[in-house]
Amino acid sequence: MDFQIALMLVQDGVVNGAIYALMALALVLVFSVTRVIFIPQGEFVAYAALAMAALQAGQTPPLLWMLLGLAALVLLVEGVRQARGAEVDWRSTLFWAALMPALAVLVLLVLKPQAMLLRVLGVLLLVTPMGPLLYRLVYRPLADATVLILLIVSVALHLALVGLGLYFFGAEGSRTDAFSDARWDLLGLTVSGQSLVILGVTAALVVGMFLFFERTIVGKALRATAINRVGARLMGIPTALSGDLSFALAALIGAISGLLIAPVTTVYYDTGFLIGLKGFVAAIVGGLASYPLALAGALLVGQLESFASFWASAFKEVLVFTLIIPVLWWRSLHTHHVEDEE
Length: 342
Description:
2% strand, globular
């Protein structure tokens, strides 16, 4: 390996690590607020990429009908809950199950977008509401369950969403047009505009997440819920809505990730699973609690994957996922163990 090849591998590792960093941030956010290890996070990536490919092919993304079906189910479930005497927050329910799907229909069916930015908006409106809708249908009824049960449910939901992805999009892979076709030569290394777009958007999202949690009332409320759910409820924070918001942010991050990677790799209906798992490895490095450590873990995973693909491409995935073993071993030695209920 010479210096030129090493630079290329480092560049690929940084770009891949940026995507894994977004996955890790979403997983840490969801787990810290709801105790859900959200295995289907990668499905949002694949859905967004394939929906954009459908739009660029002049088709209406079939995922729109899935969104409308989820919205109808949520409205039905909330109506049944109110009929049984439960308190229902109809403002948030109508926002996620009526307003957001209506906006998606407006952009995708009525406007039939041709401009790139309008298509991006349509995909984000299509995928983002799926997070809180799935939370209300699948996870909220199990809010008091153990982490193990929630994990089992996540695996089942992942299998269901992969099957739906195959049904809606088929087994063929797709790529989308790049956001930038520019190329530069730096120190003999070719840098693509799309790579810079990925790094720039990732950096902007990380900074935006930091400002959101540090400077806004809603972000501070989410942090309080993550630290002590009962204490946050006693202080008047509507913790029931924290799941909606955390899943919405996770779906938004997943959708953006899908839009970013679709121009640089062929995306299939099940591509998101491996991407989500590598983000999970990065999140484990951060203990599913620390955002900075999760970001560092994502960069580590990206570099390990890049250099492993050069030295031992057949064992690339094995080497990446083996990283989780020493991390878990080290954490088992240095973490104070408590009962799950505590």
